[in-house]
Amino acid sequence: MSQFINGKLVEGTTGETVDVKDPSNGQTIRTITLAGSDDVNAAVQAAKDAFPAWSRATPAERSAVLTKFAALMEERAEEFAQLESRQAGKPIRLTREFDVPGTIDNIAFFAGAARNLEGKATGEYSPDHTSSIRREAIGVIGSISPWNYPLQMAAWKILPAIAAGNTIVLKPAEITPLTSLLFAEVATEAGVPDGVINVLTGRGSTVGAELLRHPDVDMLSFTGSTVVGRTVLEAAATTAKRVHLELGGKAPFVVFDDADLEAAIHGAVAGSLINTGQDCTAATRAIVHSSLYEKFIEGVAGLYAKVKLGPTQDPATDLGPLVSRKHQETVAGMVERARAYARVIGGGVPDGDLASGSYYRPTLVADATPDSEIFRDEVFGPVLTVTPFETDDEAITLANDTPYGLAASAWTKDVYRALRATREIRAGAVWVNDHIPIISEMPHGGMKQSGFGKDMSTYSLDEYTVVKHVMFDLTGAQAKDWHRTIFTLNELNGKGQ
Ligand code: NAD
After folding, report:
1. What is the Å distance from ligand 1's center to 358 Cα?
2. Which among 84, 239, 257, 270 could disulfide-bond with 289, CB atoms 3.0 to 4.6 Å apart, if both were Cys?
3. What confidence score (pLDDT) does residue 489 get?
4. Looking at residue 432, what is its pLDDT?
5. What pLDDT does 491 receive?
6. What is the mean pLDDT of residues 172-176?
7. Over 50: is that where the pLDDT of 497 sits?
8. Which residue's CA is the closest to the ligand 1 atom numbered 23?
9. Are 114 and 164 spatial neighbours (Cβ–Cβ below 8 Å)?
10. What pLDDT does 186 receive?
């Protein structure tokens, strides 16, 4: 079954099918029938119908359901790890140790966060009134997610939305919908009421576009490329919907001359290759002080050569394939073009047993200048550029020299340099002497053209709630003092001027 609407798995109504393929061998895992207009309408209607009861459930009731959901996910962790590994081409070690435990922790976190909505104290900010704050759910959330972390992205979209009392229609990428469907199914088994979570498998250009413009969708929450993010903003304008955008990234990895070089080399390898580099926060641009430059290149290239590409089901595999043949061609094309203007070390499509999958070897692109395609545009593959700098000013300028601002890291033992980098690099997250770790309690989200709004953490609850001011008159007077702005007080009290 391809759709999850109103608590049930159903087929899409278009009759058009898409094969969900294992990118490590090209084999079809499941054929799904795509959603169309009727499915969009049915899912949005189900979410709309479920909203009144779910938004009025007490925080404790929503929390209890999420707590049970976390426990059920824990029981089915291996099933999720296997399915995520197969549909997205992730090494099983990654899904077992990162994607699935991270998702379970997120559910557990939002079970607690559901009971912790905050606001200003009720009080008499005017002597004649008592003011209080209500923090309310927004309504039906239309959400669209990408293929790189299908399960985690579904969790990041769904959990804060429903913890805050909203209902949701999620459209995952059509090439990786399977764990989002299973996620909704298990949530329902845990007690999330029918209609609260709906998942539509369909194309962005049809189902996605319709969801964005649906009059009964109150808010849009999108994770994906900056190009499509602009489309989301345009669509939101048609009905003035609230928008939350998590877009592309091109994270700098700045190595100052006092850095622990070995730590930086290891950090760059793991930070650039996680999820085969298909990570919006992945280290993509190493900016390295000239005194360490060649040693850094040598160290990273040495470790890249040792990385084991292999079958995703093998726990010894370090690096899986790219998500599709199409994406493999895009990555290979960018690297090939870079050969004309930079020093490319490694890279290429492996042959032999791996040829049936969309694998690509780790690639270092040294001497990439800031105006080059490989330095500026998202590659979204196992590719790290390296660019030298002389002064700290230059390093910070280079770090900020892209339209993106999602994540960055600074490598130094000097606390003043670290403080300067964390203050001056324009990104939603800056690590010091590390790159990649995320945690449920802390926000994730960008600056500049990486979007706006936060995922994870209690900050994400701000995105999915609206603050309402309620003001009570305290005087009981029929003619209130402030009415003198219209009439004089004597007129108001029937005494004339
Ligand atoms: P994408 O923008 O091509 O697609 C994302 C989603 O949008 C998919 O579900 C797709 O079907 C849908 N879509 C495409 N065109 C649409 C349209 N016209 N209307 C409505 N929906 C449409 O991105 P992708 O290739 O799936 O994912 C990779 C991108 O996602 C990268 O740019 C990456 O940086 C970004 N990303 C960002 C974050 C973050 O948190 N900032 C996290 C993960 C991925």
Report:
1. 20
2. 257
3. 66
4. 98
5. 73
6. 97
7. no
8. 224
9. yes
10. 98
Give the pLDDT confidence score for residue 393 in this predicted structure.
98
What is the CATH number that goes with domain 251-432? Answer: 3.40.309.10
Pocket (CB within 6 angstroms of ligand 1): 144-148, 171, 173-174, 204-205, 208-209, 212, 223-225, 228, 231, 246-249, 280, 378, 380, 406, 446, 450-451
**What is the third-level CATH fold of 3-246+464-470?**
Aldehyde Dehydrogenase; Chain A, domain 1 (3.40.605)
What's the confidence (pLDDT) of residue 488? 76
Q: How far apart are CA 193 and CA 365, in angstroms?
A: 51
Helix-then-strand count for the chain, H and E: 17, 22
State the chain's mean pLDDT as an integer: 97
Distance 430 CA to ligand 1 centre (A): 23
| Boundaries of every domain in the chain | 3-246+464-470, 251-432
Residue 163 in contact with residue 62, Cβ under 8 Å?
yes
450 pLDDT higher than 50? yes
Among protein residues, the one with the nearest Cα to ligand 1's atom 36 is 224
Q: CA-CA distance, 69 to 89, in Å (whole number)? A: 26
Which atom of ligand 1 is least distant from the CA of 455?
40
Ligand 1 atom index nearest CA of 327:
25
* Residue entry with tokens 């997250």: 429
